[in-house]
C-alpha cells in the first residue's frame, strides 16, 4: 500500500467537536450508543464493532469523516440524513490531499510520510498530528488486510521505537515474536494511539474467541509497549497516554492469562499494571488493576485477598465519578465474601452493586467496561449464589445472563450458559443441564477458554450418575469426544 507524501494544503488545526453527532446520542452513554451502532451494522450485513472510544473520537471531532462501512451504518441508523447532517465533513474535503493515483484510490487510509520522525509527529510539524480521516477501526474485521497494514506501520514497526513484531497473524498479533528490534528513538502520538488500538483489539478478540488462542501472541505487543515507555517522549501528555496504554495492555494480557488458567502469569501482569498506574498517578488504571486482581484472587481460592483488593479498588475509584464502575467493584467484593461463605457480607455487596448499577451509565465510565451490562451483572450475581450453594437462585441469574448478553460477546454467552448448565446440574435438574451443556459445546468451535472447558467438565462429572435422564447420555458422549485445549 502506497503512503501519501503530499503535504496538506493548510496546516493542521485542533479538531472541532461534532455537536450534531453528540446530540444524536442523547442520554445514552457512549458504550450504549456504540452497541446500537453494532446492532444497526448487523441489520445491513456490515461488520463493524464500534466501541465507546470510537464514539468519543467522533464527538471530539478527531474523525472528520467515517470510513465507508461506518458511513453505511450511520445513514441506515438515521435515514434521510447526509454525512453533513450528522456533523461530518464532506469526504472530498477530508481526502483532498492532491491528486491520487488509481492504485491509491481504493485505500481508506491516509498515512504519514515515511520519512517523518516520531518527534515531528508529536509536535505536529508535518501538519498531521491529528488524523482527520477514519482509518479502519481495529474492531472492524471487514478489511483485515488494511487493518494489519496500519497496525504494522504504527505499532509493530512504526516510529523508530523498539518493536518486536514484523508480521501480523489472523488475530492481529505476530506469529513469531522473536524478530530483531531496532534502535530506540523517542515515541510520539502515533505510537500512543497505536498502543491504545492494540488494547482494544485484544479485548474484542477475547470477547469473540476467548483467551487460550490469544495469550502467547499478546506477549510481544506487551514487551513493545514497555519498550515505548523506556524510549521516552517529548510531551507529558503523550507520556501519560503511553503509561496508561501500557498498563491497560498489561491488564488485558493478564486477563488472557487468567482466563486460560495461567494464574501465576496473570498475577504478575496485574502487578505490573498496578505498578505502572501508581508511577503515573493514574487512578483509573489502578482501579482496573485492583478490580482484576480481586477477580483473580477469587478464582485462585484466595477469597480474603479478593475482598481486600475489591475494597482497595473502590477507595481508588470513588473520585472517578462512575457508578457503574463502583457497581462492578462491589460485585468483585461480593464474590470474595461468597468465597468466605459470608452470606451477609455477600448480600450487602450485591445490594450495593444493584443500586449503583441502577443509577445508570455516564460519560465517566471507563472504556474497558463496555462488557459490563445487565448480562454481566446477572452472571456475576449467579456466581456468588453458586459459591454459596444456592443452586436454584444461581441458575435463575445465570439463565437470565445468557439471554441478555449481546451476541457480540460470544465468549460470555458460552460462559453464562456453562454456569447455567452447572447450576442446573447441581440443583437436581439433569435433563435441563444437558440441554444447556449442548449449547455450550456448540459454541466451543468459536470460543477457546480453559475456564469454560473446566466448568463444563465439572458439569459432566455431576451428570454422570444421571446418564439415563433425557439427553444426558448424548451430552456426556459429545463432551467426551470434544478436543480439549492443550
From TrEMBL:
Highest taxon in the source lineage: Bacteria
Compositionally biased residues, Basic and acidic residues: 117-133
Residue numbers spanned by region Disordered: 1-20, 111-146
Protein name: Tetratricopeptide repeat protein
